[in-house]
Amino acid sequence: MSQFAINIMFVGGSFLLYIGIAIWAKAGSTSDFYVAGGGVHPVTNGMAIGADWMSAASFISMAGLIAAGGYANSSFLMGWTGGYVLLAMLLAPYLRKFGKFTVPEFIGDRFYSKNARLVAVICLIVASVTYVIGQMAGAGVAFSRFLEVDATLGLIIAAIVVFVYAVLGGMKGITYTQVAQYCVLITAYTIPAVFISMQLTGNPIPPLGLFSTHIDSGMPILDKLNQVITDLGFNEYTADIDNKLNMVLFTLSLMIGTAGLPHVIIRFFTVPKVADARWSAGWALVFIALLYLTAPAVASMARLNLMTTIYPEGTAAEPIEYDARPAWIRDWEVTGLIQFTDKNEDGRIQLYNDTPEFEPQAEARGWEGNELVVNRDILVLANPEIANLPGWVIGLIAAGGLAAALSTAAGLLLAISSAVSHDLIKGSINPAITEKGELLAARISMAVAIVVATYLGANPPGFAAQVVALAFGIAAASLFPALMMGIFSKRVNNTGAIAGMLSGLTFTLVYIFVYKGWLFIPGTANLPDTPENWVLGISPLSIGAVGAVVNFAVAFVVSNATEEPPVEIQELVESVRYPRGAGQAHDH
Amino acid sequence: MAGHSYDAEKYWKANLRLIFGSLIIWALVSYGFAILLRPLLAGIPIGGTDLGFWFAQQGSILTFIALIFHYAWRMNKIDEKFGVHEE
């Protein structure tokens, strides 16, 4: 059977499974559609949160980021997991007790203000739409490489599948497909990792393999990697960094951004009890950690594998000839994600870090520049091929990458559609709408959101790469502080909350736009985006944490200068703090 | 709840204490051991690198899991003690 047929079988099989689940779990009420009827078991919910959370970025890109940055990029590992501690202790149980359908609804009720709800809706939509573009684009890459279809056609197929199970099943359909998608993606991620860890260290458990001995050299694998890459002019993989303030703030921004992302928060509304919300945060992190503990092992091992593929006789000897390159390099060259230019025309692939410091060594060896550019996003996808694994593993990776992208896309689309149908239409425009009408409105807004996301995924705006900073910055600087103050302070009032959200958001956006361009339009940046120009060395990616501090400070000062919230609001705060009497998530 | 406002306050204080303690450990392993205090842990070798690197890539994640389960378990006890648990 050809590789193409195997890939089709795996991807097609997984898609049929998702659609089958959707038909089984059709939503009959708004409660089904928004919170899966509120009857999801905490372990099931933990698994669904895992798939909801782990996106194309986690599955496809994260290991590549760590492989490229080594220790310095550990922020992604800590940031994207540490947020669950905040969710479990500061947000999820109380928002579950509140027992409504959406995040803006809590902000609107707690701060007794339609404007506060509207600000929250706008933050939610901007954060979620920017995030969903990345998912659709990731699905497009996976399709074009593995199914040899045009990326746009691939996207449309993916969109139709999401459409079927998300529009039909709402949160109920999404929950159970996410469980299936979690199983597909975690199997796909760990199997190649186990094989590679076995090949390099003899240890079948990748996180242990990371700290084991490299079989071929007899050295610890991280030592071996450090040696190989420093020989070629790269920084040591495990080297400490100087700018610790930025690393702290970047990690913190990712953590509070994670805790403030609405598509994750709404998953906690689907469990029956407050205690279940706490447990499901724990289970979610267990399921997420299975991938996040494997990723750093994949990162270092794949990087070492790549280096030994190019320099089979060691870094002191000449690299391989271009004509003798392995098949996977040929395959990925077709997609443009690996590029080779024979700068010194010796027919060999010189892969090194061509910095001024390395120049004398490079010159002595007759090298005239780095000749191989490898897009770091392909690391996980190409992993099975780099390690010579059988064809079915490649098919599994294709299905896994798509599962990661589609499960997150569905969660985001639900967050967007519920904000439109529940917060905008029922909350503001037409409060008298019937449940049937609202359900229809939810389905229509979901369908519109899918069309918009597919279009943007096929024609990604130039700023697609910056969206992570934007989505996390917005969630960290606007939504997280507002939610937390709504629960932990009885004193913060409507004026304070709105002033806080707007100033945190404005501060964060201005700082990002100054370095990345206003609305990311090229050429409009006021300062070059380099460490020398950052205020106190704080990168625009790390500014969300500072924006959150601004939000908290402004909200407290303004609230204390204006009148206390009314008694019934203080009672509402009181009631979300005590689990008794939670009942199912309900309408009004 | 209205009749038990004294207990309610004690319940909330117990929750805040537990959160505060958990978040100190949360910050210590990630911002402390993995980033700011890494040079201090440089002398403790582990598989070709140092303990700070381990905390950055594995140790903090494992600690986060333990913290959440500990919190969920303790809160269940506290809920029951103050009689605010769900039926």
TrEMBL record, chain B:
Source species, domain of life: Bacteria
Species this chain originates from: Marinobacter lipolyticus SM19
Entry protein name: Membrane protein
Pfam families in UniProt: DUF4212 (PF13937)
Transmembrane segments: 18-41, 53-73
Record bears the keyword Transmembrane helix: yes
The keyword Metal-binding is annotated on this UniProt entry: no
Domain (Sodium symporter small subunit) ranges: 9-85
Keywords: Membrane, Transmembrane, Transmembrane helix
